[in-house]
Amino acid sequence: MAKIKTAYFCQNCGHNSPKWLGKCPSCGEWNTFVEELIEKEDKNGPVVWKSLSLTSKPKAITEIKYEQEPRVRTTDVELNRVLGGGIVGGSLVLIGGEPGIGKSTLMLQIALTLSDKKVLYISGEESEQQIKMRAERMDSKSDQCFILTDNSTTNIFRQIEEMQPDIIIVDSIQTMQSPLIETGAGSVSQVRQCTSEFMKYAKETDTPTFMIGHITKDGSLAGPKVLEHMVDTVLQFEGDRHTSYRILRTTKNRFGSTSELGIYEMQSTGLRQVTNPSEILISQRDEPLSGIAIGSMLEGNRPLMIEIQSLVSVANYGTPQRSSTGFDAKRLQMLLAVLEKRGGFRLGIQDVFLNIAGGLKVDDPALDLAVVTSIVSSYEDIPLPGSVCFSAEVGLGGEVRAVNRIESRISEAQKLGFKTIYVSKYNTKGLDVSEYDIEVKPVARLDEIFEQLLR
Ligand code: TYD
Ligand code: MG
């Protein structure tokens, strides 16, 4: 009888071991090892993809010719941006995101807008009817978009060889199944095997391939970490399910920068590109309200103006609450302590609620100043002028600290029609403030701002 080879794989990180372990030595998770068959002995089974190049030889680096890859530019400006300028030939792109966030919608929409390319959309999750129904809702139509609902890579590659698509989309890699591996779809070794089959095909035929990947509860891509190492680009599709805005973020890119970001809005006709995000992140209102401050932050390389809302009220029921949505709770605690100690505000007996408008999650320290002023504005019940915005970090001593790329932040504020921006004094060295139409106010300490705006 043929010998069957098995090994134990950590379902969290993909670490393998010849015997079962209670705790994974690589990621530290407990009870994650599952026995999986590594290889079936039957080599006469269906061969999935035969390598075209039989041998490869070493070459001197000077002999290797390099031409700037012609990129396929899609009509989706946001996608082009996150990919570093368009789709690169033969690249393998992984798109991760929570269920229901819109991964399938995004990929189908891209398939439909690339009307001059033959796109094969492989779905292991939904039926043809479901996909058609989704396509019906969208504005774009293409007769070059083909749907294949299957999850066995044997048949998939047979169809691919016959059809020779220009672009392949796999929805999702966790539903694919290779006959070379016995375990069920979604297991670590299956995911790894299927990825490597698609990768081989992509590299040898220069066909760009997009793979959708599920993510686990803690937000990392399901399946082995190795998946992220294998692919060229990892995109993360995220957003709050209760709001319609979605962010496409690059977390790895062999062909471009990882600090790029695309913003979409989910509408009834699919995803709309948001070209001027700041406008939607600041709510329009007629009269100023207390507790609202506008800060300038950078998401990747993109400056965004964002609205911070605070509500400070006397805690009537026992322990005061601190609650923040979209902003790090620890950082909020720290800023409150600074206000208490350095500003003399008695916040220890107050409930403090903080909210970042638009459902965004932010972690740029340059928002500190806006957070602090919005809290004080609510505490004193004095509204801030609508034409003012902030961009600086706040230190533990109540000092206003410099932030990076201040020029692009100021320009964005100016573009959106703000009249005054408060920045750190230490940011203005070497900065020619006369260049801007917006008034740039340098401050060194928090008291100066409160003096000017909130007394
Ligand atoms: P979907 O692409 O199926 O998510 P994923 O593949 O990431 O699991 O998107 C699902 C959600 O998107 C669903 O709740 C309905 C919504 N949606 C719209 O709001 N408008 C649309 O035009 C489409 C196609 C979907
Ligand atoms: Mg889907």
Automatic annotation (TrEMBL):
SMART domains: AAA
Gene3D superfamilies cross-referenced by the UniProt entry: 3.30.230.10, P-loop containing nucleotide triphosphate hydrolases (3.40.50.300)
Keyword Transcription regulation: no
Entry-linked SUPFAM superfamilies: P-loop containing nucleoside triphosphate hydrolases, Ribosomal protein S5 domain 2-like
GO cellular component: cytosol
Domain of life: Bacteria
Protein role: Plays a role in repairing double-strand DNA breaks, probably involving stabilizing or processing branched DNA or blocked replication forks.
Domain notes: The middle region has homology to RecA with ATPase motifs including the RadA KNRFG motif, while the C-terminus is homologous to Lon protease.
Protein family membership: Belongs to the RecA family. RadA subfamily.
Protein's UniProt name: DNA repair protein RadA
